Amino acid sequence: PAPLSKIYIYAIANVPNPKNMTYTWVMDDSSSTHEGPEQSGAGLDAFSFFSYSSPDFKHEIRVTAHNEVTGESASASLNIKTLLPETYIYSYPENNYGRIIDGKISMYAGEENSIMARFFYFNSQSANDFEIKWYVNEETAENTGSRPEIFPINITSRTKKGIEIPMKLNVKNKSKRASMFEETSTRFGITVK
Q1: pLDDT given for residue 109 in this prediction
Q2: What is the rounded CA–CA span in Å between residue 103 and residue 140?
Q3: Taking a C-beta distance cutoff of 8 angstroms, is the pair 87, 117 a contact?
Q4: pLDDT at residue number 167
Q5: Which residues pair with 119 in a beta bridge?
Q6: Strand partners, 22
Q7: How far apart are CA 187 and CA 173, in angstroms?
Q8: For a pLDDT cut of 70, what percent of the chain falls above it?
Q9: In the chain, what is the straight-line distance between the N-terminal and C-terminal CA atoms, in Å?
């Protein structure tokens, strides 16, 4: 998750009445404000917290479920690392967005293609949460496609071979859940063959 994301964790106990179990949740990291359990009680099989504000921070969460009737207990732990949001750009060869653009793509003069952006580690629930801006030659470019994350490209037949076209994509999460870290800028280029 991105920094300052709200995280929900659920303990699933394979017993007849899991809500009758006593659950004890402990978060072992410096973001914890308690000495001891963060949450403990009968039926408390869900736990939530906000991820730490800096990227690459690791939360370790432990839960113990105790059955008061049988005296049996079981524990589990989970590590969750905060990550900065990332945007990957894919090229659209042969009707398959399967190739990640790593800096540059090549296209022929007269060729039509499209590129697609995919967003990772953002606090979002919908594609409508994103403000997406494409740039060609450092100028804002209008996306004529029906989906803002897919950008159509048409290299005119008069374009000279060897020309480099700089591209940029800025993505910002504009939802209320977004933290200050939820913005990316991705640069790549098109080389005309």
Answers
A1: 92
A2: 19
A3: yes
A4: 95
A5: 87
A6: 42, 66
A7: 18
A8: 92
A9: 40
**Could you tell me the two tokens for 80?**
């969750």
- CA 63 to chain centroid, in Å, comes to 25
- DSSP 8-class letter at 43: T
Tokens of 177: 């859940």
3-state secondary structure of 76: strand
Token couple for 83 = 């990550």
Do β-strands 22-27 and 6-10 pair in parallel, antiparallel, or remain unpaired? unpaired
Strands 104-107 and 183-192, how do they pair? parallel
User: Which residue ranges of the chain lie beneath pLDDT 70?
Assistant: 29-37, 93-98
| Distance (Å, whole) CA 168 – CA 135 | 5
Residue type, 160: K
Q: What is the pLDDT of residue 29?
A: 61
